[in-house]
Amino acid sequence: QVQLVESGGGSVPTGGSLRLSCAASGDTASTSCMAWFRQAPGKGREGVASIYTTGSSPAYAGSVRGRFTISRDNAKNTVSLQMNNLNPEDTAVYYCAAAPRANPFQCEVVLHDQQPPISWGRGTQVTVSS
Hints:
Radius of gyration: 14 Å
Oligomer: single chain
Helix content: under 10%
Shape: globular
Number of strands: 11
């Protein structure tokens, strides 16, 4: 079992920045692929970004590419999401997720897999005001 805890959410004006963090604990053997998802009120879950254990070739949703950066620190068992140039459409609950994947490609497609990640955090609220 692996436990995930998000932090760093809050409120920010349009154009501002936030940095989300996710700490993994317990059995971290199934965290080769780490990802961030988000869900806005009345909308479905959206894959935001994913990163493989090597840190190479991170994947992003088109709506956040160029504004968000995902990174991980394997020694500390953490993954972060730096969010810049935020707009009201980014308002959502952001969830950290983990899944065992064999290669970066399988980690990239986790953002829209039918098979969900095996571990989820409880989420952190991000609100961007107009």
